[in-house]
Amino acid sequence: MWAERQPKWTYVFIAASTIVYLLQQGTRLWVYLAFTPALAARYPWTIVTSIFLHVDFSHLLFNMFALFLFGTALERGISHRLFASLFILSGVVGNVGYYFTVGSPLVPVLGASGAIYGVIGALAVLEPFRLVYFYGMVPLPMIAAAALWALADVTGLFIPSQVAHGVHLVGMLVGVAAGLYLRRVGGYSYAGYFM
Q: In this structure, is residue 109 part of a structural domain?
């Protein structure tokens, strides 16, 4: 009988992002933590630290809500170490995706979106028929919702905006690869929850 794991890192990442956001409000030091492709060689740590920065409160709120929903679901089925590794790896590799898809290398990227899209990608592979509410309204299987989000980001690559579509897509690809690996080695326990 499978024993449910209680999420841990999901809450740690939510707390860390919230604390960093509050610190952002009182200082300009965040500019040394945001990933700016043109400055990547000079400030290499930013490929990680930018994951915990957010542009404004609505950006933080949306990302943390998504992390809560999808992160708790995934972390219940894999080890804490795998979840934390997937989150950070998806965020870092997502930032590499930004490096190659951004229009101007002087525009910094902030946010946990790449890491969260990695969680979504893994969950879509591991529990493709989990019911989720697309944009909080339309019930869809996880695989369909993930495909629609990916399609929106592919389209967004060709439409100028302030959304880092390359981060989302590459982060999701990391998650999909991790999900395929976990399916092959049997490293996931289905929880059977709905969102």
A: yes
Q: Which residues are catalytic?
A: 113, 168
CA gap 118, 173 in Å, rounded: 7
Residue reference for tokens 């679901």? 73
In a domain, 195, yes or no: no
Which CATH number do you get for residue 125?
Answer: 1.20.1540.10
Would you write out the chain's pLDDT as a tens digit for each of its 195 residues? 344 678 999 999 999 999 999 999 988 888 899 999 999 999 999 999 999 999 999 999 999 999 999 999 999 999 999 999 999 999 999 999 999 888 789 999 999 999 999 999 999 999 999 999 877 788 999 999 999 999 999 998 888 778 888 999 999 999 999 999 998 888 677 654 434
pTM, whole model, 2 decimals? 0.91
In a domain, 3, yes or no: no
Nearest CA to 30 out of 10, 46, 8 is that of 46
